[in-house]
Amino acid sequence: MSATVAAAGQPHPDDPLVRMETAASGPSHAVSLPETPSETFTPSATVILGNRTIIALGQGWAVPAAKDFETRFSEGGLANVTFTDPRNFAHGRHNWLALHSADTAVVSLETQTSQAEAARILKFLPEGIDHLRVQSKRSGPAATIDLN
């Protein structure tokens, strides 16, 4: 999939499958997609995905994956997920976050071409909001498949 692979099928040491970072607004977790379906997210991602409400953020070729994420969580009764694009997120979703920060997280699904804009949006999250960045190293339709 999207991870850089070194010799013998092992992940390259300079490109870990899971990258953690701390943003000024709160804990941020960037997740590169797993090399094989058997690999799983980190315990931190599990905590984020355990929130009662999740805002799925996506644009361009990440939109189908973000909508699929919303559908699967809603149909499975796992969490209340709402989908938005960066423009609509910047124009009103912050009010929800300000009122419900204790049980809300943001999951940003990103293609290679949308990662910079997503980073700009996420840095304005209210303090203490956990967010997970699921990043594809691909762009275009290949990124949609990669993110699903």
Q: How many helical elements?
A: 5
Main sheet record: 6 strands, mixed
Global geometry: globular
Please report which band the strand proportion falls in: under 5%, 5-15%, 15-25%, 25-35%, 35-45% or over 45%.
15-25%
What's the β-strand tally?
A: 6
Overall description:
The protein is α/β, with parallel strands linked by helices and 148 residues long. The protein is built from five helices and six strands; from the N terminus they run ββαβαβαβαβα. The chain has helices at 43-48, 63-75, 86-99, 115-122, 141-147; strands spanning 18-23, 26-32, 53-57, 80-84, 104-110, 130-135. β5 (104-110), α4 and β6 form a beta-alpha-beta unit. The protein is globular and about 35 Å long.
List keywords for this structure.
single chain, 148 residues, alpha/beta, six-stranded mixed β-sheet, 6 strands, 24% strand, globular, disordered N terminus
